[in-house]
């Protein structure tokens, strides 16, 4: 493979130094965007970022009151805006996924991946959706077909509940040498940069933790 | 509740990719004094006139827009380096040359805001465009090699913007192959017991013989 020095000249790889909270939040957002199912809520990270945002907001207020240099204030404001945007995007993509798969999440252990506010949101979503479906459609269907979760009384499972597609393809980017990587029954070498593969395999790596250290879902 | 996959949830817009790229570090040469900046994303400065400093691209562009600094184009953005890359891209029909992950976004921002800081700007700009064209042509050729047996595709050295462009299409193409092909796979695996293992590998890109 290409020698180390050549590679590091070209690829200023920010993923290697994902130490700041902003970097971590960026990574959380990307992973959330790229994966079909909802991931664990990064409670401590979000808390820390919230605190830093509040602190910076106060600082900017003080600087404005003191009549400090316009340039500095606007630069701090930009940093603030960028961080807020990042945080909002992360929360927003999670809410979108929750809205899409509310019932499925509430019935599986994915529920544990939501924050308490998200859980409250999901509860209300379910109630509203059920009411709406019952009033507009289900109440008018013949008996035996009125259930929100099942197609008909004959269904054994809740087959009207959409599930996130776990066999979809995803893009990943590895952060370094992974060495041979088991993919279905074949062995692939994934060295640096990208590959696309079945999300379930990626999920396996996510679960056993080797994921967080080596691979990165890429939009 | 049709359960059709909803692509727009998982897509990044080009603007969002640019947002990521704006955190890349660049060198600037400020022309004024600025106190140290303790930001959420990091600590920068203090800035002294004529002393180069490293800042994130968004900060560099903000300062440049206000006429407070000059941006030093990164080393890889020189005519010499880009010529090497362009030749190498043209020579190898299946491989991508290593380039910074966000080269598209970085060059675009610098061309837009820091024209006067780039020596031979027009030449550099046309070279970057050529590089993008050659690379994307390779991407398109590679997309044609997808078949029902493609399980994974390795794209070494693809850049952020290029990946983002092909991601929706290629994911749905592979999904469609997978969805429409499951019965075939079942019958194939039975039939391939007698065939050599070559048939199972499926086409793949940029696999270097070892």
Automatic annotation (TrEMBL), chain A:
InterPro entries cross-referenced by the UniProt entry: GINS_A (IPR021151), GINS_bundle-like_dom_sf (IPR036224), GINS_Sld5 (IPR008591), Sld5_GINS_A (IPR038749)
Origin: domain of life: Eukaryota
Keyword Transcription: no
UniProt cross-references to Pfam families, sorted A to Z: Sld5 (PF05916)
Cellular localisation: Nucleus
Keywords per UniProt: DNA replication, Nucleus
Domain GINS subunit as annotated: residue spans: 69-136
Gene Ontology terms: biological process: DNA-templated DNA replication; double-strand break repair via break-induced replication
GO cellular component: a single term: GINS complex
Keyword Nucleus carried by entry: yes
PANTHER family: DNA REPLICATION COMPLEX GINS PROTEIN SLD5, SLD5 PROTEIN
Name this protein carries in UniProt: GINS subunit domain-containing protein
Organism of provenance: Amborella trichopoda
Lineage of producing organism: Eukaryota, Viridiplantae, Streptophyta, Embryophyta, Tracheophyta
